[in-house]
Specification:
Blueprint (H helix, E strand, L loop, with lengths): L4 E6 L2 E3 L5 E7 L4 E6 L2 E2 L1 E8 L2 E7 L6 E10 L5 E16 L8 H16 L5 E4 L10 H5 L6 E11 L9 E7 L2 E7 L4 E12 L2 H17 L2 E5 L9 E15 L7 E13 L5 E7 L7 E4 L6
Parallel strand pairs: 2-9, 10-11
Antiparallel strand pairs: 1-3, 3-7, 4-5, 4-8, 6-7, 8-9, 9-19, 11-14, 12-13, 13-18, 14-17, 15-16, 16-17
Amino acid sequence: MAAPIVTSLQPPQGPAGGGDLVRLVGAGFAARLQVLFDGTPVQVLSVRDEAGVFVADLRTAAHAPALVDVVVQNLDAVGLPVAGETVLLAAAYRFVRPELARESDLTRLIRTLLQALKREVLTNTSLTVSVDYDDTVLDGLNVVALAKVPSIVLSAPRIAENRFYSTNALQEVVVQGPTGPEIQRRRPAYTVDLAFTITLTTDRTVGLLNLTSAVARFLNQNRWVEMARDPDDPAAGTVRWEMDPDGDYHTRIDGPGDVRVYACSFLVRGFDMDEGLALDRGRAVTQPQLATTPVPPGGAS
């Protein structure tokens, strides 16, 4: 037999801690394979022929974060490499250090709003934000009791579907199919409006009037809320959403302990709650093959 041919290695990266499932697709695979990532053998879970297309499933071992070469060797019946049946995939797989936790876009949006409110409305005061994202209507006085005065509280958003900003057309992405890259259609994302409530508190009436004016100015001047599309990739640019005042303003100056309270709400429009659900796979697409180099006998171990 000749050296095996690898046309696809998916996914091309995985966690440095190992344990990632990787699939090789190609031709000329022996019934037994040895695969090395940066010279270290990995577990070969299965090798099979699917209608003339050879598929091998692997499980990676732990490795320091790096871009590594992958070597595929055909083995004989006793498990020894067959001379002349080795191929090198140069820089074919990247081990990356995974993030223990990644903030959701909703969490980042709330932090962006809090920073803007603190910077433009109420500098050098304590901020309180509810992290219980339910639809319960919060008692403004109970929320105020958790904060120092003067303070500003941004309450958890209520969610309503937005059909004006939603995308109606199906999206198409390229995924790895059993015989090569294919086009996969996805349902449009679920687009919503986020309704936030701002509650301001102080122990002086004149202070409440100043805070009320500052919030009105903030909502009038900031018609869009903007943040980085990907916090780890500055080159990805920014994304922004329309921001509008919503509902009535409520002021109370006879609260317990001489606490003055002002509350209003605003909408962040056109926020995508998900990226859309996958549908059926469509036609195959062309993609450049991996750069492979046959390894002469004795050239790899």
